[in-house]
Write a structure and sequence with these properties.
single chain; 429 residues; alpha/beta; eight-stranded mixed beta sheet; 41% helix
């Protein structure tokens, strides 16, 4: 199987990715494939992450700290920005095209033997576990794809289970309340799991405490972000963990929320080692963090930013960072394409505070049509709204229009951020 054939095989098996629907939530299929491969998900200890927002950043930070500690780390995240290889990495280096094709072929060969048709995410998950076992990683850092309890990644037995936060997302699968979401996410906590919870609301924390893990550390009670200061290109943090106070930690990511993610990541790694980390490891690990597509500044004149905010909570955070930390002096241009209710996303993004809105269709079968995004923007009071068929066309026009004092923000989903990123990079350079 070639790399292109592997991509075609994945596309043929894409269901949720195209429709947004899951007919029968279950881990039975991934369990069958893993069993046929010798259960590679148990080949190394696992740090398993769930949460409504911040999973990707926290997984990256955990992985960087583990690499700085001298371990070989397999990291599995989703979705990807530009290439599917980004989802599976060894020491944060994406899997090669050849290895990727080999692993997908191995899963494909099992389809007839197992007698089940796997979905896109199940194929990717099985391939990731198999590759991690083949290259003999010391630890796996695994990000949940959807909620937790019946997510394909939940065939692991987490040494450390991490919950970043809880917000209203995927309610069509979890249920209508935050408590429903928390219960689904608590499914990653196993009997031997040490749990680290970044969520602080007592009624939600209690759900995780009842999940049956071996131990639990909770933000603000057992650890805290004691200092979170704006710095050039990122944040300067002070973090108190159950064992240590770490001061003046530089994290090269934008937004106060990344400080919260950093605190949870550091405590998760301390918990994994059952020991504090040396100061040089902490400084080195956090300094190497890079999150393409998460409030990523690609140019300065004009200011060009992409952010993969995909739900109202993430969009609200994106808007806070844009307006509060950057506060552009010139015109503010919003390029937006989304997979969900455009009214909710535009309200969270504070679209009516932008001078221009360039509505586009996110490059996904589930992308809301640009005309519908534009209509929603006009209904909320945006005056200058323009419609584009593609993210690329919207970004190209925005960069042509903007001058040195202006700011272009492309957001609404990771699909939008992934399509916008190369265009904004080329224009900025």
């Amino acid at each position: 199987m070639t790399y292109d054939e592997a991509l075609a095989y994945l596309d043929e098996h894409a269901t949720y990715e195209k429709t947004g629907r899951i007919e029968s939530p279950s881990t039975e299929t991934i369990e069958a494939f893993c069993a046929a491969m010798g259960d590679p998900q148990h080949a190394a200890p696992v740090i398993h992450l769930t949460g409504t927002n911040g999973k990707g950043s926290t997984a990256q930070m955990i992985s960087r700290l583990l690499v700085a500690s001298g371990l070989t780390v397999g990291t599995y995240t989703s979705p990807h920005l530009e290439r599917v290889n980004e989802r599976i990495s060894r020491n944060l280096e994406p899997i090669s095209d050849g290895d990727f094709a080999e692993q997908i072929a191995a899963v494909a060969d099992l389809e007839a033997i197992v007698g089940r048709r796997p979905g896109y995410f199940e194929i990717m998950t099985a391939a990731a576990f198999r590759w991690f076992a083949d290259v003999a990683v010391d630890v796996m850092v695994v990000e949940v794809g959807l909620l937790g309890r019946w997510d394909a990644t939940n065939v692991v037995d987490a040494t450390v289970a991490v919950v970043t936060n809880i917000g209203m997302d995927h309610n069509e699968f979890a249920g209508p309340t935050l408590e429903d979401v928390a219960r689904e996410k608590s499914g990653i906590i196993k009997a031997r799991s040490a749990t680290v919870v970044g969520e602080t609301r007592p009624e939600l924390v209690s759900i995780f405490s009842q999940a049956g893990g071996a131990s639990m550390l909770v933000a603000e009670d057992d650890y805290e972000l004691a200092g979170n200061r704006l710095a050039v290109g990122g944040r300067l943090l002070d973090i108190r963990t159950p064992t240590t106070i770490y001061t003046d930690i530089y994290v090269p990511l934008h937004g106060a929320h990344q400080g919260t993610n950093a605190a949870t990541a550091l405590v998760a790694v301390e918990t994994f080692f059952a020991a504090p980390l040396p100061e040089d490891v902490v400084l080195e690990g956090f300094a190497e963090v890079a999150m393409p597509g998460r409030f990523e500044v690609l140019g300065r004149q004009p200011l060009a930013i992409v952010d993969g905010a995909h739900n109202p909570t993430g969009a609200d955070t994106c808007a806070q960072v844009f307006f509060d930390d950057f506060d552009p002096e010139g015109r503010r241009i919003l390029v937006v394409g989304t997979l969900r209710n455009p009214e909710e996303m535009l309200a969270a993004l504070r679209a009516d505070e932008f001078d221009l809105v360039f509505a586009c269709t996110a490059p996904s079968p589930r992308g809301v049509k640009a005309i519908d995004v534009a209509d929603a923007a006009r209904r909320m009071g945006c005056d200058d709204v323009y419609t584009f068929d593609t993210v690329e066309a919207a970004c190209q026009r925005a960069m042509e229009y903007a001058d040195g004092d202006d700011a272009v923000l492309a957001t609404g989903s990771l699909y939008t951020a992934g399509a916008a990123r190369p265009v904004l990079q080329r224009s900025a350079n």
